[in-house]
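ENTRY TYPE: protein
WANTED: fold as tokens:
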Amino acid sequence: MNTRNEPVRLRQMFGYIVVNKEELKVKEYDRYRSFYCGLCDSLHRRSGRAGQMTLTYDMTFLVILLEGLYEERLKSREGTCLVHPFEKRTFRRCSWSDYAADMNVLLAYYDLLDDWKDDRSLSRRAAAGMLRQSRDRIAGEYPRQAEAVADYMRGLAACEARGGGNLEEAASLTGKMLGEIFVPQQDCWSDDLRTIGFFLGKFIYLMDAYEDIDSDSRNGNYNPLKKIAGEPDFDRRCRQILMMQMAPCCMAFERLPIVRDVQILRNILYSGVWIRFAGVYRKRTGDEQ
């Protein structure tokens, strides 16, 4: 989390929406990885090498979710890449890969820009500059999503400047932003997609706060969980709070008529998103969940 005077960072968005590899069949993991490689390919096609450098596993979930819902025809090819020049991989992509790639760049651009504002890191400023043209294109194509990210930045900065421990307010800002990103177009599925994004965004924000509570307490950084951090049942209470976010998220997901790759999606929602929590919880308490 951030100090009250720091610019808000979007880094907390990355690293939580992942698959639990151990719980997947080999062929399911290979398919999951092919969507990841396809997303990388879309980043390169739409935003060049600079865009490709922003690749994360998180937006792979969005690709598989949208592709499973709308059942668009997939394009698949075998090949190598700069990162794996001697290993043939499958690149599986569709228009939703392009959409997720654009949303990935949009988030990464603001993350880099805020790093520059905070640390005056010339490398981060240069990286943001390399994405500026793509960001402008994306904002033109997706003004609702771009404005949602900008609103999030302003709202969370104001929330953190006020301080306090209003968990719902801070987490909901992240939820609203991710909710808009999860809705590529307005149709009969928009409400459930927005609900998935909203509660997943809240989960991500609160999980990040839980993971950083010790370092934030030592360094005097803002963290909305500080208010309850001294309570004897703090860790179990955090687990309960996080479960309360994932329950409506999963309920909304189950309402969608998704058949294709549904086991991969369920693996992420019911298991993958809990991997980081399990490690932090075990380290803090010495107990398994």
Observations:
- The first strand starts at residue 75 and ends at 79.
- Confidence is low (pLDDT under 50) at residues 1-11.
- The beta strands are 75-79, 89-93.
- The CA atoms of residues 214 and 229 lie 9 Å apart.
